[in-house]
């Protein structure tokens, strides 16, 4: 008895991978074996990139808060220690936005911490 092969499912799988490879350069976009490897690697990078994005943004927020705090005579660690002790419920994302886009509001926070 001949072997039964599900051509419909295997063709659909290949089609999906080639769809993900759309826009790649050279044989990476249309040769199954090359495209499969490129797409797998790309998906792995995308997964890792989603984790790195969170790290990078936190780092950026810290830099912005540090720059804003130093303009008012405080270091980042002094500022964040005072924020945590004072009970201000603002996270780094909001503090960085205030330091960058609303310096007068950030100055008010720093002044309240210095008292």
From TrEMBL:
CDD domains: Ribosomal_L20. Coiled coil: none annotated. Keywords: Ribonucleoprotein, Ribosomal protein, RNA-binding, rRNA-binding. GO terms for cellular component: ribonucleoprotein complex; ribosome. One of its GO terms (molecular function) is rRNA binding. GO terms for biological process: ribosomal large subunit assembly; translation. Transmembrane segments: none annotated. HAMAP family: Ribosomal_bL20 (MF_00382). Binds directly to 23S ribosomal RNA and is necessary for the in vitro assembly process of the 50S ribosomal subunit. It is not involved in the protein synthesizing functions of that subunit. This is Large ribosomal subunit protein bL20. It comes from Lishizhenia tianjinensis.
